[in-house]
Amino acid sequence: MEKRRMLKRTGLMTALAILIAATAAAPQDATAAVAPSIFDIQYTADPAGDSPLDGRIIDCAGGIVTHKFAGSRPRIVLYDPANPDGWGGIQVKDNTLPGDANHAFGNVQIGDWVSFTNVMVEEYRGTTFLQYDSATSPTFLVESPNNAMPAPITVSPDDIPAPTENPAEFWLVADHAPAPEKYESMIVRIQDVTVSEMDQGKALDNYALSNAAGSCWASDYMNEDRSGLEDYHSLVTVGQHFQGVSGIFEQYTKIRDTYAWDYYQVLTTSDDSLVVPEPASICLLLIGGAGLVLRRQRKQV
After folding, report:
1. For an engineered disulfide with 261, which of 22, 70, 155, 202 has Cβ 3.0 to 4.6 Å away?
2. Which residue has the higher pLDDT, 130 or 296?
3. What's residue 293's pLDDT?
4. What whole-number distance in Å separates Cα of residue 44 and Cα of residue 36?
5. Exposure letters 235-271 (e unless 16+ CB within 10 A, then b)
6. What domains are there in the chain, each with its CATH number?
7. By C-alpha distance, which of 205, 218, 243, 267 is closest to 77?
8. Lowest-confidence pick of 71-80, 120-129, 136-145, 188-197
9. pLDDT value at position 289?
10. H or E element: which one contains 274?
11. Which pLDDT does position 301 carry in this prediction?
12. Measuring CA to CA, how many Å separate 25 from each of 15, 29, 35, 36?
């Protein structure tokens, strides 16, 4: 009798051990199902810059909405604060109600953290997008409101160089290094630049921003404070100097047999994107320059 009890007890203990082992393994299996982050979608060592998840339908942990654009295909721009220096931005395009004011993201606010299910990763004309398309039955969830906006990443024009024309009608960036790619859909800032050219790019709405370090291109097509159907913000004219220009970093690529466009651009989003020197700053600069000249003259005497 005692022997039977011992065998029964041993059997129960064995079953309990198996159950505990299975329960312990469950969290590890669940980890594999965690939705990819923006970094997981964007990070790549591919010189072409393509996402490793290109073409796949995925869930996405999402990020903070930094901008909304109500174009023919409304879109929102997301930022993940876990990656503030790069690979932390992505754009989501709504293809469910083209041109409709009541599109899917109509009630989403700047500062909302939004996550997604069943969205497709697509490389579209040089930029990685999440496509919110009814064919994949997508959904989104506002996880939290009123999140802090990111500080822009300060870059130099030579970090995101303008294209050169070679041959005619082929405007191409010479080097697609990993550095520009990591800024995609993030907010960048260029300091101490002057508008040197206008009417550039595929839609003739790009302008060149130049300083001693080089030149890069910007555009105002996503600028909500641009007047009416004008291509440019009212501050943008040849010769205008800016203390800083900030905006969403984007690549645009469209290549055909007889022409090609492949360039980077900084997309301004509001009046605050374009910072002109204050009159007082200009006066101080002139006074400082005059003082330097006087000191040099005294030394010569």
Report:
1. 202
2. 130
3. 38
4. 14
5. bbeeeeebebbbbbbbbbbeeeeeebbbbbbbbbbee
6. 38-144 (2.40.50.140), 153-280 (2.40.50)
7. 267
8. 71-80
9. 43
10. strand 274-275
11. 45
12. 15, 7, 19, 21
Name the residue type at position 59. D
How would residue 179 be classed by pLDDT, with cut points 50, 70 and 90? confident
Compute the distance between CA of residue 152 and CA of residue 168 in angstroms, rounded to an integer: 35
C-alpha angle with apex 164: 159 to 170, nearest 5 degrees? Answer: 130
236 Cβ contact partners less than 8 Å away, ≥ 6 residues apart: 195, 198, 207, 220, 274
Q: Is 2 helix (H, G, I), strand (E, B) or coil?
A: helix
51-55: long-range contacts (C-beta < 8 A, 24 or more apart)?
A: 51/121, 51/123, 51/128, 53/121, 54/121, 54/122, 54/123, 54/128, 55/120, 55/121, 55/122
Residues above pLDDT 70, as percent of the chain: 80
| The model's pTM | 0.81
Q: Is a pLDDT exceeding 90 seen at residue 2?
A: no
Specify the pLDDT at position 102: 63
**Residue listed under structure tokens 């030149």:** 215
Q: Is residue 85 within 8 Å of residue 159, measured between CB atoms?
A: no
Contact of 128 with 112, CB cutoff 8 Å = no
DSSP 34: S
CA neighbor of 260 nearest in space, from 163, 175, 184: 163
